[in-house]
Specification:
single chain; 177 residues; mainly alpha; 1 helix; 89% helix; 0% strand; Tropomyosin
Length: 177
C-alpha cells in the first residue's frame, strides 16, 4: 500500500532528502520498466513453451515416422533379398532352360536322323516287299509249272506202265508163239 503523499520538506533543510523524490521516481520508472520487461519475458516464455511443445510434438511425430520408415526399410530389405534370391533362382532357371533347350535341339536332331533312317528302312522294306511279291509270283508260276510237270509225269508214268504192261504182254504173247 502506498503512503499518502505529503509535501516534501524543503531542500535546504535536508540535502539528502532532496534527492529522495528523484530517486523514488527513478526506482518507480525502473520498477515499471522491470514489470514491462517481466511481462515481455513472460510472453516470450509462453511463446517459447508453445514452440517447445510444438517441437516436442514434431519430435514425437518424426520419431514415430522414423520407426514406421525403419519398418518399411526392413520390409524392403527383405523384399530385396527375396528378389535377389529369386533373380538367382531365375538365373539358374535360365541356365537350366538353356541346357534343356540344347538337349531339345540334340533330341530333335536325333529324331530327324531317326526319321531319315526310318524313311530309308521303309523304302528298303517297300522294295523288299516288291521283290518278294515278284518272287512269290515267280514261285507260284514255278509251282504251277511243277504241278503241270508232275501231272504230265504221272500221266506219262501211267502211260509208261500201260505201255510196259502191253509190251510185257506182247513179249509174253510173242514168247508163247
Amino acid at each position: 500500500m502506498r503512503r499518502p503523499h505529503t509535501a516534501p520538506t524543503p531542500c535546504y533543510q535536508n540535502p539528502c532528502l532532496t534527492r529522495v523524490p528523484q530517486r523514488m521516481e527513478a526506482l518507480r520508472m525502473e520498477a515499471d520498466d522491470s514489470a514491462t520487461k517481466a511481462e515481455e519475458f513472460k510472453a516470450k516464455v509462453k511463446t517459447l513453451e508453445a514452440e517447445t511443445t510444438q517441437k516436442e510434438q514434431e519430435i514425437t511425430s518424426l520419431t514415430h515416422r522414423n520407426q514406421v520408415l525403419e519398418g518399411e526399410v526392413e520390409k524392403l530389405e527383405t523384399s530385396v533379398k527375396t528378389y535377389k534370391d529369386e533373380a538367382g533362382a531365375g538365373a539358374a532357371a535360365g541356365s537350366q532352360a538353356e541346357s534343356m533347350q540344347r538337349k531339345i535341339q540334340v533330341l530333335e536332331e536325333e529324331a530327324e536322323e531317326s526319321d531319315r533312317t526310318i524313311r530309308e528302312l521303309n523304302e528298303k522294306l517297300r522294295q523288299t516287299d516288291v521283290k518278294a511279291g515278284h518272287f512269290e509270283r515267280k514261285v507260284q508260276a514255278l509251282e504251277q509249272s511243277r504241278d503241270q510237270w508232275e501231272t504230265k509225269y504221272e500221266e506219262m508214268s501211267t502211260k509208261y506202265k500201260e505201255t510196259k504192261d502191253e509190251l510185257d504182254k506182247f513179249v509174253a504173247d510173242m514168247s508163247q508163239i
